Recover the amino acids of this structure.
């Protein structure tokens, strides 16, 4: 009997370069670049059997009742402080200077933005509403509306160009930062700030997890097979609990969600 084939939208990482298969299951990779473009189709139309998904998107989708089930698998995690940049010749000297400033972010719901807003509020006294946010696209979860302290950039606007022109004072990027020396991190020592986060909370911020369509979750042996295939990135529920708890809390504090989810809801 041949292995069952499931389509999977997963990013390109060392741990996804050569995925094994089991006698029962094989993953057929779907090319989506950047991988963030897979999140909305998974949330809105269950396009894939298996999909990478940002932690903020997952929590928002779960609260909204989207039929997806979380696997204890971490695709990507990193310190976030190096992702918020300002102009090298600008007046910003540290994160506290962002109060009252114009900051761009791809979407208000972007996971990197969620983590950084939490750090700004918790460690530097800059609440989300103290910043004039400029967003460029909608959330992956339909129905979410940006808070009133956000402004949508004009159609076709480019965040890097707006930062370069002085239309933004700072901007939050993802894993890929603009090249060149015209921009610098808002955090004077981004690496030290990341270590401070880890010392305070006990983990490196999680960006991307893995979900499956809930209709598949109850099939005998399927989850075990998927965890075997994704074993290089597999974690445990207990190991993920601190990141999920803090992301849950910060999503509510920032208006991304209306309420905290319990652990049973998260893993149901």
């Amino acid at each position: 009997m041949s292995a069952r084939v499931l389509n999977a939208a997963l990013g390109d990482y060392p741990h996804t370069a050569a995925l094994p298969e089991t006698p029962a299951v094989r993953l057929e990779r779907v090319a989506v670049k950047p991988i963030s473009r897979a999140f909305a189709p998974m949330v809105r139309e269950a396009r894939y059997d298996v999909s990478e998904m940002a932690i903020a998107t997952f929590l928002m989708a779960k609260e909204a009742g989207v039929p997806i089930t979380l696997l204890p698998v971490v695709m990507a995690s990193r310190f976030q402080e190096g992702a918020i940049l300002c102009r090298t010749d600008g007046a910003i000297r540290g994160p506290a200077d962002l109060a009252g400033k114009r900051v761009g972010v791809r979407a208000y719901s972007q996971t990197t933005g969620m983590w950084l807003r939490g750090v700004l509020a918790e460690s530097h006294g800059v609440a989300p509403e103290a910043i004039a946010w400029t967003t460029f696209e909608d959330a992956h979860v339909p129905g979410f509306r940006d808070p009133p302290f956000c402004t949508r950039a004009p159609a076709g606007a480019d965040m890097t160009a707006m930062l370069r022109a002085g239309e933004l004072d700072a901007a939050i990027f993802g894993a890929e930062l603009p090249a060149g020396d015209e921009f610098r991190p808002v955090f004077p020592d981004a690496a030290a700030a990341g270590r401070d986060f880890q010392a305070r909370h006990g983990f490196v911020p999680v960006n991307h997890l893995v979900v499956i369509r809930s209709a598949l979750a109850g099939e005998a042996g399927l989850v075990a097979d998927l965890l075997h295939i994704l074993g290089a990135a597999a974690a445990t529920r207990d190991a993920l609990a601190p990141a999920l708890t803090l992301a849950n809390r910060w999503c509510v504090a920032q208006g991304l969600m209306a309420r905290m989810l319990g652990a049973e809801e998260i893993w149901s």
Summary: The chain has a mean pLDDT of 96. The CA atoms of residues 93 and 186 lie 7 Å apart. The domain at 4-78+205-267 is CATH 3.40.190.10 (D-Maltodextrin-Binding Protein; domain 2). The first strand starts at residue 4 and ends at 9.
